[in-house]
Amino acid sequence: MTRLSAVATAQLYDALFEQASALLRDHNPCQIHTNDAGETLCAGHSPSGWCCEGCEHLTPAGCGVDVKPLACRVWLCQKVADRPKNKPVVIALRALRQTGVALGIPLDYDYVTLRKSRTQILTSLRAVK
Question: Is residue 109 very low, low, confident or very high in pLDDT (cuts 50, 70, 90)?
């Protein structure tokens, strides 16, 4: 695995985040919306909830300003990922995730890493070096 400087890692993180955010914005695979009852729902919503539900960084306007949770941006729930129309987005997000992982950014799917902010991830990388 290639190790980058702290500055290069932060720049890569930001570039990957922007690319993933653009894919999600342009293709809207999650279809996050508010129903008539005022509940926030998405295409992958189930009786147990949705993936963003309960996240400490979630605000009524979406993900908190300056949080930049890259792991969230490069991951889609199985229900959304399995929709044929989302296949190009899934492939592109997977490539972004693989790039980050290959260069040392932890982007594993688990509810600890998934919900970490940019600051939390970059700080944890400095602690590892």
Answer: low
The residues, ordered by sequence, that sit 6+ positions from 12 with a Cβ below 8 Å of its Cβ are 4, 99, 100, 103, 105
Six token digits for residue 124: 């944890």
1 in a domain, yes or no?
no
Instruction: Convert the pLDDT of each residue in 82-98 to its tens digit.
Output: 999 999 999 999 999 99
Q: Which amino acid is at 109?
A: Y
Give the closest residue to 116 by CA, choosing from 61, 74, 80: 74
Please state the domain count of the chain.
1
Range of the domain at 12: 6-128
The bridge status of strand 40-41 relative to strand 58-59 is unpaired
* Cα–Cα distance, 28 to 38 (Å, whole number): 20
- Residue 17 domain-assigned? yes
Q: Inform me whether the pLDDT recorded for 39 exceeds 80.
A: no
Maximal C-alpha separation, the chain: 50
CA gap 97, 59 in Å, rounded: 25
